[in-house]
Amino acid sequence: MLWTEKYRPKTFEDIKGQDRIVERIKAMVKDKNVPHLLFSGPAGVGKTSLALVVARELYKGENWRENLLELNASDERGIDVIRNTIKDFARTKAMGNVPFKLIYLDESDSLTKEAQHALRRTMENFTNNARFVLSCNYASKIIDPIHSRCSIFNFKPLQKKDIEDYVSFISKNEGIKVENKAIDALYETSEGDLRRIVNILQSCAVLNKNVTEEAIYKVVSAARPKEVRLVLEEAIKGNFISARERLLEVMLQHGLSGLDVIKQIQKEIINLAVDDKKRMDMIEACGEIEFRMVEGSDEFLQLQALLARFCK
Q1: Most exposed among 88, 112, 310, 311, judged by the fewest C-beta atoms under 10 Å?
Q2: What pLDDT is recorded for position 2?
Q3: Which one is the CATH code of 160-220: 3.30.1330.30, 3.40.50.10420, 1.10.8.60, 1.10.287.70?
Q4: CA 256: distance to chain centroid?
Q5: Residues 6 or more apart from 79 whose CB is under 8 A from it?
Q6: Model confidence at 1: pLDDT above 60
């Protein structure tokens, strides 16, 4: 069994790091007065989990899924899904004492504009029978008419304290030991994505019940911050050949792509002992090189150009 499913929150109290949002949603569910909802935020912060908890609490009992339609809009993103699948589900009454069904659209920012315009009419016409919960990473990709029909909740990345609590909970249940430095590494590599953290922990625990910082970096195929910092320090001293060799060694050792390296370099620039003007110039250079890579330029050649610019 995947740990991500095993440890998916079942109640409002299980949702970590989104206390204000949970408090408001919980009050709505208690009164059975739930409007259309729009959940926006990065991946792995509890949007889908909260939507499923809402369904569990509204339709108590084993058959709660009968009143829930769960769709991934990135797979079924056309107008036909709105006209057929969703309309057919929304036309019928809910089972039980709750006056409406729940339709959950994950990754709704992947819906085409035509599908979103069809959805806004469906949301309006079937309000008596159904409530919509839309989840997205980028709320700006949702059209304004849908914004105005929903209560909007912006989720934030999880803080280090929330991650420590959840890792501690998992380690007790699974009989594994996670070192303090390993928790720091999880926080750095996950960027607040709890789903990613659970997957990394599971991969590490398969090899060894004692999860170390080194094991974390091996599983995620990322260089340690110290390794990247050494490359940058050599570059700003003007030692181009040494910086180039260190960078090549780091990329080969960890199997990193050029975009992975750019992201890690950008993070470490903030921690370098340089003045703010030089730091700004370095970050600007990272943005330009990243754009060239995305457009198809040779990755290692562009990284060498970046180091050359830092050396100057």
Answers
A1: 88
A2: 66
A3: 1.10.8.60
A4: 21
A5: 112, 114, 115, 118
A6: no
Q: How far is CA 135 from the centre of its chain?
A: 12
Render pLDDT for 29-86 as a digit per residue (tens, 0 to 9): 888 888 999 999 888 888 888 998 998 888 887 678 888 888 876 666 667 677 777 7
The architecture in CATH of the region 225-311 reads: Up-down Bundle (1.20)
Query: Domain 3-154 has what CATH class?
Result: alpha beta
Q: What is the pLDDT of residues 176-198, one digit of tens each?
A: 888 888 888 888 888 788 888 88
Provide DSSP, the chain. Answer: --HHHHT---SGGG--S-HHHHHHHHHHHHTT----EEEE--TTSSHHHHHHHHHHHHS-STTGGGGEEEEETTTS-SHHHIIIIIHHHHHSPPSSS-S-EEEEEETGGGS-HHHHHHHHHHHHHTTTTEEEEEEES-GGGS-HHHHHHSEEEE--PPPHHHHHHHHHHHHHHHT-EE-HHHHHHHHHHHTT-HHHHHHHHHHHHHH-SEE-HHHHHHHHT---HHHHHHHHHHHHTT-HHHHHHHHHHHHHHHT--HHHHHHHHHHHHTTSSS-HHHHHHHHHHHHHHHHHHHTT--HHHHHHHHHHHHH-
In contact, 243 and 231? CB cutoff 8 Å: yes
pLDDT in tens, 162-178: 888 888 888 888 888 88
Residues 303-309, mean pLDDT to the nearest whole number: 89
